[in-house]
Write a structure and sequence with these properties.
The structure holds two protein chains of two kinds.
Chain A (H helix, E strand, L loop, with lengths): L1 H6 L1 H16 L1 H35 L2 H5 L7 H14 L4 H13 L4 H13 L2 H10 L2 H25 L16
Helix pairs in contact in A: 2-3, 3-8, 5-7, 6-7, 7-9, 8-9
Chain B lengths: L1 H19 L1 H35 L2 H9 L3 H13 L4 H13 L4 H13 L5 H8 L1 H25 L1
The chains are: A mainly alpha, B mainly alpha.
């Protein structure tokens, strides 16, 4: 319950400021509320369909297959699967942490974990439409074209820099890279 | 126009899925509903904040703030994005409103990347799962990537 209230902290603060503002400058408070509302409607036209698309992807992409193909010997196919898995999911980055950890426990490569987190955060196929409508389609596609190799690069670099046995609960044998 | 495309694609996908497997489609909708509900607090907060800032601070002043397209403005926006982590559906509308204020596209590309990939606020959580080293290396590399993407966007856009 406390957590729930905490999540609305920013909104509650804004609402309080708007209400207090009403006492001093009704016009300004109205302007603020109107601008927020117009923006909110704009956002609400786009977010729900994106969520539905991501829910559909989530139930139709066979997870088992993906989980079984992320191991040390997975190579390029593993990276591609990590990309697909990350881009198919919904939710903020911290929702990906427990999933990434369970993938790691099932034997996924460190590079694939980093790729999975990176794609989860910033590449979402249904989101390209959303990015296009708020900023521009050229922008969205170009950013995607730079981000995919970038995330892959970060993944492989991480595997070189971070020792495989650094995870807190060390649930698996150390691999020697 | 784009939202109409998005809506039709979603409806078609939903119908195809429903024809193939009712139960699975119901599960998908439940998942969508849940992920939407987790977004609601941040969507309300973000739109509320943007409206308030737009009303309080004169448009040209805000424009000036984002107008310095030089390296300083670029780095500033990337650093601001690195502090908090936002889910992409919240990050895009926010970036869109910054665009209307006159922020440059390369800066926005860096902003979106740091906003979604790097989060000082959520770093302790990431450390609890993956340890300090993994978190620090991942976040620093992602920040560098964001800057690179921004520069590349500036070259190609």
């Amino acid at each position: 319950m406390m957590k729930r209230i905490n999540k609305y902290r920013l909104f509650a603060t804004i609402l309080t400021i708007d209400l207090v503002l009403t006492l001093f400058d009704t016009k300004l408070a109205q302007l603020s509320a109107t601008k927020s509302l117009v923006f909110l409607i704009e956002v609400l036209i786009i977010v729900p369909p994106v969520m539905v698309l991501m829910g559909l992807i989530d139930v139709w992409v066979p997870k088992k297959l993906v989980e079984d193909n992320l191991g040390p010997a997975s190579g390029a196919r593993g990276s591609a699967l990590a990309l697909l898995l990350g881009s198919a999911a919904a939710g903020p980055l911290y929702a990906a942490f427990p999933i990434a950890l369970s993938l790691r426990k099932k034997g996924a490569r460190l590079s694939n974990i980093a790729i999975f987190l990176g794609t989860w955060a910033t590449i979402k196929i249904p989101m390209i439409l959303m990015e296009s409508s708020f900023i521009g389609i050229r922008f969205a596609l170009l950013r995607l074209a730079f981000t995919i190799p970038g995330v892959l690069g970060v993944g492989f670099l991480m595997e070189r820099v971070v020792p495989a046995n650094i995870f807190p609960d060390k649930p698996f044998p150390v691999e020697h890279a | 126009m784009l939202s109409l495309t998005l809506l039709s694609i979603t409806l078609i996908a939903l119908m195809v899925s429903f024809r193939k497997d009712r139960e699975r489609t119901k599960k998908a909708l439940l998942l969508s509903y849940r992920s939407f509900m987790t977004l609601v607090p941040s969507l309300l907060g973000m739109t509320g904040l943007v409206g308030l800032v737009l009303a309080l601070i004169p448009q040209d002043l805000l424009g000036n703030l984002f107008m310095f397209h030089g390296i300083a403005g670029f780095v500033l926006i990337a650093v601001v994005g690195a502090i908090v982590t936002m889910p992409a559906p919240v990050a895009f509308p926010l970036a869109g409103s910054l665009l209307k204020l006159g922020a440059s596209l390369p800066a926005l590309a860096a902003f979106i990347t740091t906003l979604t990939m790097v989060g000082l606020v959520t770093a302790p959580m990431e450390m609890a799962y993956f340890g300090k080293r993994f978190t620090i290396v991942r976040q620093s590399l992602s920040f560098i990537l964001a800057i690179l993407i921004g520069i590349l966007m500036g070259v190609f856009l």
